[in-house]
Design goal:
Blueprint (H helix, E strand, L loop, with lengths): L13 H6 L2 H4 L3 H33 L4 H50 L2 H6 L2 H20 L1 H22 L1 H8 L2 H38 L1 H6 L3 H54 L4 H13 L1 H5 L1 H22 L25 E8 L12 E8 L4 E6 L5 H7 L8 E6 L2 E2 L5 H7 E4 L10 H6 L8 H10 L25 H13 L5 E5 L7 H15 L3 E5 L3 H4 L4 E6 L2 E6 L1 H7 L1 H16 L24
Parallel strand pairs: 3-8, 3-9, 6-7, 7-8
Antiparallel strand pairs: 1-2, 1-4, 4-5, 9-10
Helix pairs in contact: 3-4, 3-7, 3-12, 4-6, 6-9, 6-14, 7-8, 7-12, 7-14, 8-11, 9-11, 9-14, 11-12, 11-14, 18-19, 22-23
The structure holds adenosine-5'-triphosphate.
Length: 622
């Protein structure tokens, strides 16, 4: 699934990417800056140690003053303790605000994902989203905790250290500064290359997460078909790819580490030789050489760490880009007219559900492919229930998904009681229209909570019991904790038919004005289906309903039937009328009848002739 860019844009700037974190960092900036300041003080405290050493070597040690030596040792001890305490304090200061930053970024991501249109979720693999909410945010937190502070702290420490060294002896100082230009050039090359592999690695983690998630959710299919070997092969291919990328990262890190460590060490070695010669000549005091070399050695860690601090910063920049790729996606918006929607004069008059020349094409459909719906005209009168029948893949599910605006019509319009659904706030629309999908999705919550998701605030036990009765879901009362029993992940601890009945109960519990049911009884045995139908008939009596049906028994629930064929409504009438006048309908229903009798799944396959039957256009679908 094409979900992310494989490589960063050219001209990408890590700094620009990281600056986007500012709104989240702003609330904790005081603590973060204080912590950075404390770290600078702690680090510079360490640089005082060589000066004390110089004083000790040139003073008490040269003069054999044991009191002075003990005093110097005490100073060194106090400086060491101060440095350790300050670094500890810094860590304490940043721990809490940084978890706050990570938590609020994760909350924003989750909130945004809920508001993104279905078209987005169709496009993006869930593992890619999961890895952005977990691994990427962890990388961002680690960047704020270490590289952000220590690139600054180490920069200041190196600057102060270099000034101290130049003040001690500028010739030796220049020798130590020799490798600066090659090291900076290496860092620049490293950053560019590392950004590329860091992005690849993080995308590969996303793909791996998707595969693992699919394997866990689809474990029944994998086991049932004995596909664990092929699944394991796919897993190994992805892990081998990720391992290769991680090794490339390690090689790059090793290369920069080698340059950053070796060149300064060589320079320090050269300064040591030169300094020793000058001490022997008497042009440099031994104390100055000790102080100089101690300072140079104290700067080793700040210099050595630059490599991995840059690597962590690049990973955080990539993680930030990946995070904002999702956050920058446009959420579902209310149309401009929604707020002051010009409602027609008959807005309060119940006119039912009407499709007017509705056309639809999936945004991710192959280029050049024809639209799926090419002009659907259909009117379901108030209180009427209409069954939608059509060949597999004719677009029935798609048409039903347009009513609660899970997808937006490409052109044409849909009205509820005369009001264009795009001129209605989504919350209002979705409160008036209840849906039950063919694939019933349940959440890891109690049975009662799953059903009451479909009800407005304040729904009570009586509403729950009534909905369970309509859906013939009395089995819920017999579960170990009744309707308080928690269903497992995705409700997989229940049978398909039980899940479907709970999904149906969820659709009817809120007594919606409009009900959209996508083949809601497909997993039920004939007796349960008959019982559900009898109860549904009562509900449907005062509800306007659109019911996708594959079987004659479901069709008979409805007052009228519409035949969807070739992207349009080819005919509307009663079951008997369509059976008599429309061979395609008769074929679909007889196929369904036969498969129902033989226990095979219903529906015809795509490719079956599905053009409008003769005379279809004479039916007025409205
Ligand atoms: N997100 C999507 N992107 C692109 N094409 C899609 C998408 N979802 C469905 N389709 C395509 O749209 C067509 C109609 O699908 P739809 O699920 O609406 O058919 P249906 O009539 O409900 O089929 P069935 O009776 O098998 O449930 C199919 O060819 C399907 O491949």
């Amino acid at each position: 699934m094409p979900t992310t860019r494989a490589t960063p844009e050219t001209g990408r700037s890590a700094v620009r990417a990281l600056l986007r974190l500012w709104p989240y960092v702003r609330p904790v900036r005081a603590r973060l800056f204080s912590a950075a300041f404390i770290a600078i003080v702690a680090s510079c405290t360490g640089l005082v140690i060589p000066l004390v050493l110089k004083w000790m070597v040139d003073g008490p040690v040269a003069g054999q003053d044991f009191g002075g030596i003990w005093l110097g040792a005490l100073y060194l001890l106090l400086l060491g303790i101060a440095e350790a305490v300050l670094f500890g304090f810094r860590r304490w200061l940043v721990a809490r605000p940084l978890s706050h930053v990570e938590a609020s970024m994760r909350a924003d991501l989750y909130r945004h994902l809920q508001r993104l249109p279905i078209a987005f979720h169709d496009r993006w693999a869930s593992g890619q989203l999961l890895s952005r909410g977990t691994t990427d945010l962890m990388l961002v937190r680690m960047f704020l905790a270490f590289p952000l502070t220590f690139l600054l702290v180490n920069g200041v420490t190196i600057l102060v250290g270099v000034i101290i060294m130049l003040l001690q002896d500028w010739t030796l100082g220049l020798v130590v500064l020799g490798p600066v230009i090659p090291v900076m050039w290496t860092c620049a090359v490293f950053e560019r290359r590392y950004a590329e592999v860091a992005r690849r690695a993080q995308d590969q983690v996303g793909d791996l997460t998707t595969l693992v998630e699919e394997s866990v959710l689809g474990i029944r299919v994998i086991k049932g078909f004995g596909r664990h070997r092929s699944q394991a092969r796919a897993f190994h291919t992805l892990t081998a790819g990720l391992r290769g990328t991680e090794l490339r990262k390690a090689r790059l890190l090793a290369a920069i580490w080698a340059v950053i460590v070796t060149l300064p060490e060589l320079a320090i070695g050269a300064a040591l030789v030169l300094g020793a010669v000058r001490v022997a000549d008497g042009t440099l005091s031994a104390g100055t050489l000790v102080a100089f070399l101690s300072t140079a050695l104290a700067l080793r860690w700040p210099v050595d760490s630059i490599g991995f601090l840059l690597a962590m910063s690049q990973e955080a920049a990539t993680a930030t880009e990946r995070y904002f790729e999702v956050l920058d996606e446009e959420p579902e918006r209310e149309s401009a007219t929604t707020a002051q929607a010009a409602r027609p004069s008959d807005a309060t008059t119940a006119t039912g559900l009407r499709f007017e020349d509705v056309r639809f094409r999936y945004p991710d459909a192959p280029p050049g492919s024809p639209p799926l719906l090419t002009g659907v005209d259909l009117h379901i009168r108030p209180g009427e229930s209409l069954a939608l029948v059509g060949a597999t893949g004719s677009g029935k599910t798609t048409l039903t998904a347009l009513v609660p605006r899970l997808h937006e019509v490409t052109s044409g319009r849909i009205t509820l009681d005369g009001v264009d659904i795009t001129a209605m706030p989504r919350a209002e629309l979705r409160a008036r229209v209840a849906v039950a999908f063919e694939e019933p999705t349940l959440f890891s919550a109690s049975v009662g909570d799953n059903v009451l998701m479909g009800a407005p605030e304040g729904a009570d036990r009586a509403d729950l019991d009534r909905a369970l009765a309509v859906a013939q879901a009395g089995f819920a009362h017999a579960l170990p904790d009744g309707t308080d029993t928690r269903v497992g992940e995705q409700g997989l601890s229940l049978s398909g038919g039980q899940r479907q009945r709970l999904a149906l109960a969820r659709a009817v519990v809120g007594r919606p004005d409009f009900l959209v049911l996508d083949d809601p009884l497909s997993a039920l045995d004939v007796h349960t289906e008959a019982a559900v139908e009898a109860a549904l008939r009562e509900v449907l009596a005062d509800t306007t309903a659109l019911i996708v049906a594959h079987r004659p028994s479901t069709v008979l629930l409805a007052d009228r039937v519409a035949l969807l064929s070739g992207g349009r409504v080819a005919a509307v009438g009663t079951h008997q009328e369509l059976l008599r006048d429309h061979p395609e309908y008769a074929r679909l229903m007889s196929g369904a009848q036969q498969s129902a009798e033989s226990g095979a799944p219903s529906g015809t396959e795509p490719g079956a002739p599905s053009g409008p039957p003769p005379g279809a256009q004479e039916d007025d679908p409205r």
